[in-house]
Design a protein that fits this description.
Blueprint: H1 2-7, H2 12-18, H3 39-49, E1 53-55, E2 59-61, E3 86-89, E4 99-103, E5 110-114, H4 124-136, E6 143-146, H5 163-173
Parallel strand pairs: 5-6
Antiparallel strand pairs: 1-2, 4-5
Helix pairs in contact: 4-5
């Protein structure tokens, strides 16, 4: 955003304010943002607290930063903003899919779980195995997860936040 603002000869806060999300703005999933979107107020407050000011003619501007006399030292001010996962639960199709196979002759020898949820460091695959073990009453070493083979699994949806623990976990446990 800052590079784009520079190319447009525009202040970075001014560019953000011209393109900011409001209540009713259309999200990437095609639905309007709900009431309570406060990005405008947050950006205005952050900019003001960081010595930006708004001129009615030219918009938002930040005064140039005075540099120290030592040429190896430089001072600068930056600005960034964003949002995460806004729009899920506001019309985005929500789903999760999993199957659990129980193998054995008279007692459970192996449980095979097919759940495609991506583990991006949040421990989703560990939780899938734990939930399947709990649901079937076996130790976790009897559970095998197939989680990365699209020939064997359907979608479990977004891997955002703790969503997979709730959605894919309940699909594995047979609740949904």
């Amino acid at each position: 955003m800052n590079r784009l603002a520079l190319a447009l000869n525009m202040d970075p806060v001014e560019l953000r304010m011209r393109n900011i999300i409001h209540e009713g703005s259309i999200a990437s999933v095609g639905t309007p943002f709900p009431k309570g979107v406060s990005m405008l107020q947050v950006v205005e407050r952050c900019a003001t607290e960081s010595v930006w000011s708004r001129d009615k003619t030219i918009g938002w501007q930040h005064p140039s930063t005075q540099q120290p006399s030592n040429p190896s030292l430089r001072r600068g001010v930056g600005f960034a903003c964003g949002f995460k996962n806004v729009g899920y639960s506001f019309g985005f199709p929500e789903q999760s899919w999993a199957t659990v196979e129980i193998h054995g002759n008279g007692e459970i020898e192996q449980v095979v779980v097919r759940a495609a949820g991506a583990d991006v460091g949040q421990g989703a695959h560990t939780v899938f195995v734990q939930m399947a073990a709990e649901a079937t009453g076996v130790p976790i070493d009897k559970v095998r997860l197939i989680g990365h083979d699209t020939a064997e699994t359907n979608t479990s949806g977004s891997a955002s936040a703790s969503r997979l623990t709730f959605m894919a976990g309940n699909a594995i446990k047979g609740r949904g």
